[in-house]
TrEMBL record:
This is GNAT family N-acetyltransferase. It comes from the Bacteria. Keywords: Acyltransferase, Transferase. GO terms for molecular function: acyltransferase activity, transferring groups other than amino-acyl groups. Residues 4-149 form the N-acetyltransferase domain. CDD domains: NAT_SF. It comes from Pseudoluteimonas lycopersici.
Length: 149
């Protein structure tokens, strides 16, 4: 049994998640800027543009999943993009990432979504194994991107 809980973040949680969100951004090569991380999360939350889920133990944030709403015209349904998933180094290999994936699935289901989607690099073997173990399917489609900055 896990000694942590998962839940949707509220207004008072943003400042607590921001340092971990900053660590996530740093992991992907961005310069550390906790104030920027806080402002970004706060704006998404205030505008209702995303759903931020967190895992916590004794008041400490262990990890987070950040989801953005999408819509499928073909399916005429809402989807959620699980854009960010991160677990603090000290909390890895304790089931936190899997719990956050499960919480994201439960959240999307409660919202009436038709599905969830995420993207990861082909060389991220541990993440891909985790997603498969959590019941996610690896699609044959290929995303394309167009940088605008």
């Amino acid at each position: 049994m896990n000694d942590f809980t998962t839940r949707r973040a509220g207004d008072d949680d943003i400042a607590r998640v921001a340092p971990l969100f900053d660590a996530y951004r740093s992991f992907y090569g961005q310069p550390s800027d906790v104030a920027r991380a806080d402002a970004f999360l706060r704006e998404r939350h205030t505008r209702g543009e995303s759903a931020l889920l967190l895992a916590e133990r004794d008041g400490d944030v262990l990890g987070f999943a950040h989801l953005y709403p999408l819509f499928s015209s073909v399916r005429t349904a809402r989807l959620w993009l699980l854009n960010d998933l991160f677990v603090a180094d000290s909390a890895r290999r304790q089931g936190v990432a899997r719990a956050l994936l499960d919480a994201a699935a439960a959240f999307a289901h409660e919202q009436g979504a038709a599905g969830l989607m995420l993207e990861t690099t082909r060389d991220n073997g541990p993440a891909r194994a985790l997603y498969r173990a959590a019941g996610w399917n690896e699609d044959a489609s290929q995303w394309y991107s167009l940088p605008l900055e």
